[in-house]
């Protein structure tokens, strides 16, 4: 894993001092070779030991090891895909900023992919698939989270998986009363700290259902209740950029689960094609 991707993916779980170091490294990666650990500490107004502990917490032997690894990552990027992506975006006439946004989205998607290993996506797809054969899949998201909850519920329905989607906590509480062992509750909550969702999650666990949460890669109450926790890594200092990175990485993550549900299941793919064809016929005049 690239050290910059690793830092970006772990940032949300760092302490305040560690985040300051992480942000400096991410924003000044090209200049890091000119900084000793003491100079970096002086620039941030922290102790040298904090810098050393930061690098060791990331799995490096020390600061020189981190600096060398970052230098290698930059050299590979200068000769590889990142430069090509930015160039392609510029040629498309979207400008340097759009190219930079494309790169940031790609980095967020990569970080999210790395912290959600294939076996976790397999487990989510298996749980949803089994619930679809013998039970129900409950799906809820509030506010902007409902956009992705609603879209994913539609995709599952196209595969012939019975879904119970709601964006109202009172109605979902009533729906969950009919849940049982083998059912799945998929909860979308970016920050994972909505009290009502946590109560519904506990109630669902009492019904012996399997809880799957989709939140940011942070420590949050909802994530601690989950049987399987999907997490999204997306950080940016600009408040209008960070939501875009989160949405892009989240959609990429859900696409991976959807593909897993389709792979190796001819019956689901047949239902999908049949449902898409019927919907198209309904839309035609």
Automatic annotation (TrEMBL):
Domain SIS: 124-263
GO biological process: carbohydrate derivative metabolic process
CDD domains: SIS_RpiR
UniProt cross-references to PROSITE patterns, sorted A to Z: HTH_RPIR (PS51071), SIS (PS51464)
Domain HTH rpiR-type: residue ranges: 1-77
Gene3D superfamilies, A to Z: Glucose-6-phosphate isomerase like protein, domain 1, Winged helix-like DNA-binding domain superfamily/Winged helix DNA-binding domain
Classification via Pfam families: HTH_6, SIS
Keywords on record: DNA-binding, Transcription, Transcription regulation
GO molecular function: carbohydrate derivative binding; DNA binding; DNA-binding transcription factor activity
Domain of life: Bacteria
Entry protein name: Transcriptional regulator
């Amino acid at each position: 894993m690239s050290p910059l991707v690793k830092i970006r993916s772990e940032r949300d779980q760092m302490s305040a001092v560690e985040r300051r170091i992480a942000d400096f490294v991410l924003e000044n990666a090209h200049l890091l070779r000119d900084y000793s650990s003491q100079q970096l500490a002086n620039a941030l107004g922290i102790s040298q030991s904090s810098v050393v502990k930061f690098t060791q917490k990331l799995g490096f032997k020390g600061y020189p090891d981190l600096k060398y690894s970052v230098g290698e990552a930059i050299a590979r990027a200068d000769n590889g895909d990142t430069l090509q992506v930015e160039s392609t975006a510029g040629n498309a006439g979207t400008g340097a900023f759009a190219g930079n946004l494309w790169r940031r989205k790609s980095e967020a998607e990569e970080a999210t992919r790395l912290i959600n290993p294939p076996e976790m996506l397999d487990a989510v797809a298996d749980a949803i698939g089994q619930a679809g054969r013998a039970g129900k899949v409950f799906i809820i998201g509030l506010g902007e989270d409902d956009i992705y909850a609603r879209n994913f519920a539609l995709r599952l329905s196209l595969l012939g998986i019975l879904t119970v989607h709601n964006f109202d906590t009172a109605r979902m509480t009533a729906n969950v009363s009919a849940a049982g062992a083998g059912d799945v509750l998929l909860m979308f909550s970016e920050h994972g700290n909505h009290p009502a969702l946590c109560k519904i999650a506990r109630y669902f666990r009492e019904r012996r259902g399997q809880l799957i949460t989709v939140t940011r890669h942070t420590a949050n109450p909802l994530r601690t209740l989950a049987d399987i926790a999907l997490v999204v890594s997306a950080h940016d200092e600009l408040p209008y950029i960070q939501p875009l990175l989160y949405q892009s990485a989240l959609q990429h993550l859900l696409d991976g689960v959807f593909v897993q549900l389709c792979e190796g299941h001819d019956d689901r793919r047949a239902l999908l094609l049949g449902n898409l064809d019927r919907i198209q016929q309904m839309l035609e005049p």
